[in-house]
Amino acid sequence: MTQTFDVIIVGAGMVGAALANGLGRAGLTVALLDRQTPPAFHADETPDLRVSALSAGSEAYLERLGAWSRIHAMRLTPYARLSVWDATEHPLSRLLPPGRLRTTFDAAPLGRNHLGHIVENRVTQAALWDQAGSTNTITRLTPVDIDSVSESGEGVHLHLADGTQLQGQLLVGADGAQSAIRQMAGIGVTRDQYGQQALVASVRYAGAPQDITWQAFHPSGPRAFLPLHADGDHSWASLVWYDSPARIAELRQLPDDAFLAEVTRAFPADLPPLQALAGRGSFPLARQHAKTYASGRTVLVGDAAHTINPLAGQGVNLGFQDAEALQQLLVEARRAGLPLSDTALLQRYEARRRPANQRMMLAMDLFYHAFSNRLPPLHLARNLGLALANSLPFARHQVARYAMGIDDRLPAALQPLIDRVPRPALLR
Ligand SMILES: Cc1cc2nc3c(=O)[nH]c(=O)nc-3n(C[C@H](O)[C@H](O)[C@H](O)COP(=O)(O)OP(=O)(O)OC[C@H]3O[C@@H](n4cnc5c(N)ncnc54)[C@H](O)[C@@H]3O)c2cc1C
Question: What percent of the chain has a predicted confidence (pLDDT) above 90?
Fold first, then answer.
């Protein structure tokens, strides 16, 4: 027997599950599928290796979906300050006024008590999954193995390996960077591998959670600290160390004690004394963009459509913006009596999201190229840039508002810089 829905979403990651909730709350019938059931949250577990800095914009969106209070009830860590600086050792650094090389964004002058929250990915996913389970227009199906996808005048048809057949008006690929739905729809990607990888480690330190997240830029890549929740008299943090694949492989193989000693040696003095390591893992970094966001009755959201360098932690924030834009258009279409797979509607979705996603990719490339080298003129220029940002609170506030997801455009003053970043063919 075939089960029929308005929308079938493949991928119950953070983005797919958010979209399901948005559509389900608006009265559309949704099937939310994943190849694995999202794990339930347990308060005594050590932190998930994958964490995300969720912007104020994402917080407001998750609140509209009814999921934020669930995240709050599990665990999250607010941060009120965000600090970045150039850690390259260079004689030219002496030409710059000491103390001016660090740019710190602060929530207080923006009239807020936090800039964002660090949340473990599995917490966000579990909150959205549970919220979907309490919405009667959403059917959750896990674990699924998709055999084939086909289209007819009636709709899109999914055949699952266990014999289940599903039909929908629209199929959403929210199945991540390696999206099978994207491949089945024949949508290609442009892809560029960065020369760096990211090693992520969950570490414990003494004292209460710090209210700051920071990132020091080294020529081999940034080193970042993201505060996590308290655990008795201790607190957890997520550290990210970007470096060459060879260096990351070396770091991964060190015994725990030697690894912590190496982190302590290599990270800035701002790092609190470390006590324990709960886990570490590494991720390759690639910028990838689908050549089109929609084909026939299939449309892509989140990492299935685009991946960016995570150095400013914007990937899932962009994915949430995709999900909300698509939700608005689909709900409008339903009200207007239009088919949900209407070509003009899917083109409007792409027109709304592609330029914003591309802008963020270019901004990340600006940082990547400007900081991942030792060239003296660039060293001086980027430090002057940071010093300038420090002395112009207005510019700093604008950048902070963009990073928080309050404004969706970069400050105009930064656009000429971004226009000068070398662009691979894929971004033109
Ligand atoms: C080191 C690192 C740090 C990052 N830090 C940040 C940060 O601070 N802030 C931020 O915003 N972003 C960050 N990101 C990016 C962020 O993690 C991703 O953008 C986000 O996870 C994408 O969510 P998604 O739901 O689109 O895809 P995914 O999280 O990849 O979810 C895809 C889902 O689809 C399911 N699936 C896959 N294939 C199938 C299939 N064939 N059938 C059924 N189900 C399937 C999977 O099981 C999964 O549940 C970081 C990324 C990295 C690598």
Answer: 71
Q: Is 315 in the pocket of ligand 1 (CB under 6 A)?
A: yes
Residues 256-293 have pLDDT tens digits of 999 999 999 999 999 999 999 999 999 999 999 999 99
Give the whole-angstrom CA distance, residue 200 versus residue 259: 12
Which atom of ligand 1 is nearest to 145's Cα?
A: 42
Neighbours of 377 (CB within 10 A): 8
Q: Is the pLDDT of residue 427 over 80?
A: no
Judge if the beta carbon of residue 180 lies within 6 A of ligand 1.
Answer: yes
- Please check whether residue 348 is in contact with residue 295, taking contact to mean a CB–CB distance below 8 angstroms: no
Q: Which atom of ligand 1 is nearest to the CA of 181?
A: 41
Q: Is 316 in the pocket of ligand 1 (CB under 6 A)?
A: yes
C-alpha to C-alpha distances, 32 to 3, 151, 222, 346, nearest whole angstrom: 13, 19, 37, 20
- Distance, CA of 257 to CA of 242 (rounded, Å): 20
Dihedral sign for Cα atoms in the order 161, 167, 168, 170: positive
Distances 146 to 18, 129, 175, 229 between C-alpha atoms, Å: 21, 20, 12, 38
Which atom of ligand 1 has the smallest separation from the CA of 317? 11
Compute CA 134 distance to the chain's CA centroid, rounded to the nearest angstrom. Answer: 26
Cα distance between residue 376 and residue 88, in whole Å: 10
User: Each residue of 338-359: pLDDT tens digit?
Assistant: 999 999 999 999 999 999 999 8
Whether 198 is in the pocket of ligand 1, judged by its Cβ within 6 Å, is yes
